[in-house]
Specification:
The complex is a heterodimer of chains A (about 180) and B (about 170). Chain A has about 180 residues and is of the alpha+beta class. Chain A is about 45% helix and about 15% strand. In chain B, strands 1-2-4-3-5 form a five-stranded mixed sheet.
Chain lengths: ~180, ~170
């Protein structure tokens, strides 16, 4: 039985299998269709139906299940929902077990989340460091505010305060002039 | 793809987490992955996916089976199903067989209770996965039942060929 205990590991293995079978396009379709529209359809329903409240409910439930040690912090104010991930349970599992088949596991999150939240009328600012730390900010698409400065939204919970935040290569969405890639 | 070679010598499970069990919502993604590959690559593509995963990803497991035989199979199945949320199962061993009785499949239980559409072929995945792992280890695996409960028999003596039509579709 393909189980849930080591899900992140065979999920990551599947990325490499799909890329080998059908290239990057098949993998992108997998994240959008199979994960975003099928597996995570409860997320889409919550976010489309309840906006910020739905985001808090979805990630509150999902992260509590996946990260009972609470290696994350969610912040909500009237104009933004922010997630600071200090110890990603998913990427952390791969790092601890020294597993890597696909070139960038972290790509899967933005690949399925972005279409879901954009359909619901929101936009994303996001950055990850490939070491299990990342942050997300969700705003209504009409809100022109830029991503927050460090500590501005989540105070001392801001992952960018961590001394090891700068380590490794960062990906930033949307792409900044100093970032290394975008979708 | 890189060959998976890592093996955890302190546990029958090849990879370890801080949590004793996985999150049941991951069954949504497993089922959705099957649906996606069946749609994009057909049944033969889906079977190739499962066999490739069994051979590559699960290499540390079947390598242990090949080295240590049926006792390693029983030890792994016990640990693997203990780590699944709400799995109800029993394992019986004889000199020539290990039999896994899945009394209530945790995946189908969660998917059905959440009202998810389940791919009809879902229960065949255990045969393609474990059957390939057993074959790689010089063993045999056959499956009877399905749709929520089944019997999986691992043996060192060649049994009759598996009839996939005898694995119940998910209704």
């Amino acid at each position: 039985m393909i189980g849930t205990y080591d899900f992140c590991a065979h999920y990551e293995w599947t990325f490499a299998w799909l890329e080998a079978a059908g290239g990057e396009q098949l993998l992108q379709e997998y994240w959008t269709d199979a994960i975003g529209e099928d597996a995570q359809r409860h997320a889409a329903e919550l976010i489309q139906g309840q906006g910020f409240e739905g985001m808090m409910k979805y990630w509150g439930h999902t992260l509590a299940e996946e990260s009972p040690e609470k290696g994350y912090h969610m912040t909500q104010n009237p104009s933004v929902v922010r997630c600071d991930m200090h110890d990603c349970p998913s990427k952390g599992f791969l790092i601890k077990n020294n597993l890597q088949q696909y070139k960038d596991y972290c790509d899967h999150c933005i690949a399925w989340i972005r279409p879901v939240v954009e359909r619901a009328g929101f936009r994303i600012d996001h950055e990850h460091n490939h070491q299990g730390q990342c942050w997300w900010e969700f705003r209504e698409q009409e809100n022109p505010s830029p991503a927050s400065e460090t500590g501005e939204v989540s105070g001392h919970h801001d992952v960018r305060h961590l001394p090891h935040w700068p380590q490794k290569e960062h990906d930033r969405f949307p792409e900044k002039s100093d970032s290394v890639k975008s979708l | 793809m890189k060959k998976v070679t890592h093996r955890n010598k302190t546990s029958p499970l090849p990879y370890r987490d801080n949590k004793p069990q996985g999150s049941a919502d991951f069954y949504f993604a497993i089922n959705a992955t099957f649906r996606f590959i069946l749609k994009k690559r057909g049944a033969s593509g889906w079977i190739s996916y499962l066999r490739d995963m069994a051979t590559d990803y699960y290499r540390p497991v079947w390598t242990a089976w090949r080295e240590d035989g049926l006792p390693a199979v029983a030890t792994y199945l016990q640990a693997a199903f203990d780590a699944e949320p709400q799995a109800k199962f029993e394992i019986a061993e004889t000199k020539e067989t290990v039999t896994l009785h899945v009394i209530e499949c945790p995946a189908l239980k969660h998917l059905k209770s959440a009202g998810r559409e389940i791919v009809p072929e879902f229960c065949q995945h255990c045969y393609h996965q474990y059957g390939t792992m057993a074959s790689n280890a010089g063993l045999h695996m056959r499956l009877q039942g399905g749709n929520g409960s089944c019997t999986q028999t691992f043996s060192c003596v060649a049994p009759a060929e598996q009839n996939l039509n005898e694995i119940h579709p998910v209704l």
